[in-house]
Amino acid sequence: MTRTADTIVIGAGVIGLCVARALARKGRTVLLIGDHRPGEASRAAAGMLAPSVEQSEGPAHDFAVAARDFYPDYLEDLADETGIRVPLNRLGILQVALTEKGVKGLQKTASSNSRWLNRAELSELEPTLGHALGAVMNPDDGAVDNVILMTALDESIGRSGRITRVEAAATSVSLEKPEVETESGELVQAENVVIAAGAWGGMIRGADALAPVSPCRGQLISYRTTGLRHVTYGPRGYLVPRPSGTIVAGSTMEYVGFDSSTTPEGLARVRSAAEEISPALAVSIVTLEWAGLRPTTPDMLPIIGRDERYEHILYAAGHSRNGILMAGLTGEIVAGLSVGESPAYDLSQFRPGRF
Ligand SMILES: Cc1cc2nc3c(=O)[nH]c(=O)nc-3n(C[C@H](O)[C@H](O)[C@H](O)COP(=O)(O)OP(=O)(O)OC[C@H]3O[C@@H](n4cnc5c(N)ncnc54)[C@H](O)[C@@H]3O)c2cc1C
Questions:
Q1: Cis bond leading into 251, ω under 30°?
Q2: N or C: which end of the chain has fewer CB within 10 A?
Q3: Which residue has the CA at smallest separation from atom 20 of ligand 1?
Q4: Under a CB-based contact definition with an 8 Å cutoff, are residues 92 and 177 in contact?
């Protein structure tokens, strides 16, 4: 017997989970087809909500800011539903300057709502950054604990009577009709199909608009905390404090295919960038080292929307460096598109088929 639902979602990373949850809350039944692979980005990520630092232009930037501001209510709602409170840090993000040249550079590129902190103000705010010459403070940016977010989303999906989870790999999406084949040869059908398969999307037959998505490895290290409270960028990396008492330091950008292992050279680069921001880390204990694969596109913007030729196929993919930031809002928007609603945002820069 062929399984059916209103919508099939392929991929159970943060994007697929947010899309499936939003669809279920619109009353749709969902078949969520997802397997697990080494290098999945959503649990590996640092969790920064940094639209002011990772700046894009035009409506894409507005979308990123809206996605950041979508988080507080989203997490409140998720906590009411699941009992899992996902830590959210909205203290603002610091970009520290370590040289006079760095001061000039940062002051030139700072976003319009940021403010400059001089050395004394910075070291009062963050004593472990006392060696820096100053910093740009980007208010409202911050971080979410993406690992706990994934646990809460998994819990929400598990509780939903409208979502059926299928642990499998999808191998193809039919271009004639909304039908997906899995690796075991099972065919599942629906009214439409959302592809949210991270760095692997382009490997699904029929997902033509995802061909330009490629994996970009990022290596990360977590340290026992030094007391840092703000997410902090330095010239070559960043630090993300987590309420669990660790600091996540990242990250490399490496195009090495689907290899998600760490390397001594990569970790050394992350270490040196982290200790440059906070010298106290040189004597802090390393608790973990890992790597993940960002689903990157040539312009680093996501692919969101309906396929231009095959109306039954929608994409929620290629979120590159900002998939945690954009996840909740992407879920709402794609669920809306799938039931025929007009999006409240200008998605033209995210158009499938633009490459
Ligand atoms: C080192 C690093 C640091 C990052 N830091 C940040 C950050 O600070 N802030 C931020 O916003 N973003 C960050 N990101 C980016 C963010 O993690 C990603 O953009 C986001 O997680 C992408 O989510 P996804 O669901 O598309 O992909 P993934 O999390 O990779 O999930 C894709 C899922 O689809 C499944 N899948 C793939 N193919 C198939 C198939 N054929 N059938 C069934 N299932 C399939 C995979 O097994 C996987 O479970 C970072 C990423 C990395 C790697």
A1: yes
A2: N
A3: 323
A4: no
Note the pLDDT tens digit of each residue in 211-236.
999 999 999 999 998 899 999 999 99
Tell me the two tokens of residue 353: 């088929």
Cβ neighbour number for residue 121 with a 10 Å cutoff = 14
Tokens found for residue 207? 């997902």
The amino acid occupying position 50 is A
Kindly give the pairing relationship between strand 187-189 and strand 3-4: parallel
The answer to whether 188 touches 8, Cβ cutoff 8 Å, is yes
Q: Could you tell me which of 97, 214, 77 has the C-alpha nearest to residue 153? A: 77
**Do residues 71 and 328 lie in contact, with contact meaning Cβ atoms separated by under 8 Å?**
yes
The segments of the chain whose pLDDT lies below 70 read: 1
How many whole angstroms from 197 Cα to the centroid of ligand 1? 8
Whether 190 is in the pocket of ligand 1, judged by its Cβ within 6 Å, is: no
Token pair of 111, please? Answer: 């976003």
pLDDT tens, 254-264?
999 999 999 99
Q: 260 in ligand 1 pocket by Cβ < 6 Å?
A: no
Locate the ligand 1 atom nearest the alpha carbon of residue 169 and give its number.
42
Residues 6+ apart with CB under 8 A from 120: none
Which residue of 319, 320, 325, 334 sits with most ligand 1 atoms within 8 Å of its CB, as the best mutation to test the pocket? 319
Determine the length of the chain: 355
Q: HSE (CB half, 13 Å, CA atoms) of 227?
A: 10
Measured in Å, residue 222 CA sits from the centre of ligand 1 at 19
Q: Regarding beta strands 313-317 and 192-195, do their DSSP bridges make them parallel or antiparallel, or are they unpaired? A: parallel
Nearest protein CA to atom 37 of ligand 1, as residue: 197
SS3 label, residue 352: coil
Atom of ligand 1 nearest to the CA of 196: 26
Distance CA(327)–CA(315), nearest Å, equals 13
Non-local (6+) Cβ contacts of 305 within 8 A are 314, 315, 337, 347, 350, 351, 352
Question: Is pTM beyond 0.85 here?
Answer: yes
